[in-house]
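I would like you to sit down with the record closing this message with an eye to the fold:
=====
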Amino acid sequence: MNKLKLIAAAIFFLLMACVNRDDIYKNGNKKKSEKEIPDTSTAGLPLMKDLTDVKDPVELLSQSWELGEDIDALQDATEKSGVRLSFRGFSFATDGSFVKDPRGYISFGKWDYDVDGKKLTLKFTDGKTNVYHIRNIMRDQLYVYAEGDKGEIFKYVADGMRYENTEDDPFYTANNQWRIAPAKPESDEAIRNRLKACIHFLILFHQDMIVKDAGLISFYGFPSCLKFYGPGIFMKKRKDIDGEWTGCFYNEEQAMKAYDMIDAVIAMKYDWTKPGSWLKKNESVLEQIYKKL
């Protein structure tokens, strides 16, 4: 009988050891011991309007668009490719503001659409004006003539959804002002606020990917000194900081001051135990980082 008890005890402790190995947490991240169950819950996330039944072309335009031919390239794009790839797109807000090329050399302005003439007019903050002739607008497809109202046609694609609250859109003009370099040196407080605005954008972008159930997840083209994994948030090495990040500040010295600020905060401990996908975990920690800044 004692021998049987010893064997049973040995089996029990062996099983417990296996469970412990499967439940190891490193920085709050649980090691995968089996396939993760998809989490499709959008509770607590920004609300979106589905444009499926919308017919008004102005309403259909009021969302984010990306040039179709650039999306495939985005799949394989990395910061180490050595070549700055161009990703063309627009984000048209219902208040008449727009952001052009948020994954590239970003610019801002006001837009207006002439329904009868099918002309989209963009007035940039630098005074320049562009006019685009539209061939057709649908919920998730936009066809634009390359020149005038004839010639080659470019196809833009969208998700067919728009945020109920414009300020929840990561590509709304107000959420990207941190990318405009100041005309003069900033105080430490102003640099910290610029850095917080960057983190706020990244929070919104994570939420955007979650609520849209994005099939392609890429941070390419957005200025940042952070790297994202599933899950995980890390600092880029100083030698890997590029001109896109430093270009958001008055000069390189102030950009590196912001780098040191976030580096000190990243080193703190965070709660990684939020249920759900790695995007939800990252988004939760970004919110914690924002508060600590």
User: Anything to note?
Assistant: Residues 1-37 have pLDDT under 50 and may be disordered. The helical segments are 2-22, 57-61, 68-76, 188-211, 243-246, 252-266, 278-292. The chain is about 30% helix and 25% strand.
